[in-house]
Amino acid sequence: MEQHNPSVREEALALLRRGVPNRTVAERLNVPRGTVGWWRHQDRKARGETYVRPHDCPRCTGGEFDHAAYAYLLGLYLGDGHIISKRKQHHLSIYCTRSWPGLVDQAERAMHRVMAMPAVNRRINKGCVEVKSYTQHWTCMFPQHGPGKKHERRIALEPWQQEIVDAHPWEFIRGLIHSDGCRITNWTVRNGKRYEYPRYFFTNKSDDIRKLCTDTLTAVGVQWTVLARGSDPFNVSVARKDSVALMDTHVGPKH
Question: What pTM, to 2 d.p., does this model score?
């Protein structure tokens, strides 16, 4: 590590103790951020100060958060999301297809609106984008987190989550469709003429998650059926014209 004048270190510590962020101190004094972080760590250790990472978890602080954004993010999480919660690694990941940049933007925006403080970034993978938000408090917001695959364990909403879904059902449905659903155009031939008609699908192996979807669809007046894939009824289908029109109004295709 580069040696710095003791006066620079003391000035840095004075700023840090007043709450100035590491980045600002580093830029102001022209010192690497890693060095500033080390000085902060050593100063806390010398003073016997225990560091508690700041957070804005609504469940822990009782703070307000965007319920509509949460309903959407809950749908994304139940479909294509998971949480890593280990000793030194905590983050929520939502996987989005790279061909739908609008969906990637919406996932990131929803994370910020639920909790603004955690860092969010994107990891580009082959064919998909992983949107990641870093804090151990995502397990507070998604108590469905647990070991194993979601379709191999019970998934049930807490009463406070159900209240949010009841208040913002279309946001929840949109999150589910944007994760494990799609809007397609089917076609058939009658009397030599081709007819096309749109329909929505939601496909998930979890009986519990599919029921959350269908219960919410019913609550907003959407008629649905279940189509079996082989012998397993994994597909929820919305094909009636009036119900598709409702879905188009509130959900629409991915983009």
Answer: 0.81
